[in-house]
Amino acid sequence: GRCVETLRGHRCAITCSVVDWASGIALSGSADGALALWDLGTACCVESWRGHAGHVISLSAVWPARRAVSAGSDRTIRLWDLHHAACLESLRGEGTPIECIKLDWRSQQALSGSGEKLKLWDLTSASRSRDLLGHRLA
């Protein structure tokens, strides 16, 4: 394979991305806490905004609903309305930084990974509903 396009727009290193190939859109996060929404057909940044006080670690999106969650080194999870590049909710984690996150818009839940714990978040009440233990650090 070969590179067919290079998209430019972030000021710092890109740390994560999610893509909807069917719609030709992508969302990326960077080391300066910024998020950017991309049109892959035109290779243009459609929107960019400040998302976190630290770098963006992980992203997850539900494209039909135009919703996304981001996890940052500032230990926050942010729920985004991608239509307006607006933060709908900010959830605060504690302890070790959040390393990964996945979103299920239908159930209004997010699952994050932090250290040896998975944390289940209820987005309707903007709270952590429970910790799931199992992994042990070596």
Task: Kindly summarize this structure in a few lines.
The chain is an all-beta fold.
Task: Tell me about this structure.
This protein has strands at residues 14-20, 25-30, 34-39, 44-50, 56-62, 67-72, 76-81, 86-92, 100-104, 109-114, 117-122, 127-133. With 138 residues, it is mainly beta. Strand 7 (76-81) and strand 8 (86-92) form a beta hairpin. The radius of gyration is 15 Å and the shape is globular. It starts with 13 loop residues before the first strand and ends in a 5-residue tail after the last strand. The mean pLDDT is 88.
Throw out a few tags for this protein.
mainly beta, 0% helix, 138 residues, 12 strands, globular
Secondary structure tally: strands: 12
Report on the biggest sheet: 4 strands, antiparallel
What is the residue-mean pLDDT, rounded to a whole number? 88
Show unreliable segments. none
Class of secondary structure makeup: mainly beta
- Helix count from the secondary structure assignment: 0
Strand order of the largest sheet: 1-2-3-4
Radius of gyration of CA atoms, rounded to a whole number: 15 Å
What is the subunit organization of this protein? single chain
How much helical structure, as a percent, in the residues? under 10%
List the helices and strands in order: EEEEEEEEEEEE
Strand content: over 45%
Spatial shape? globular
Amino-to-carboxy terminus distance: 38 Å
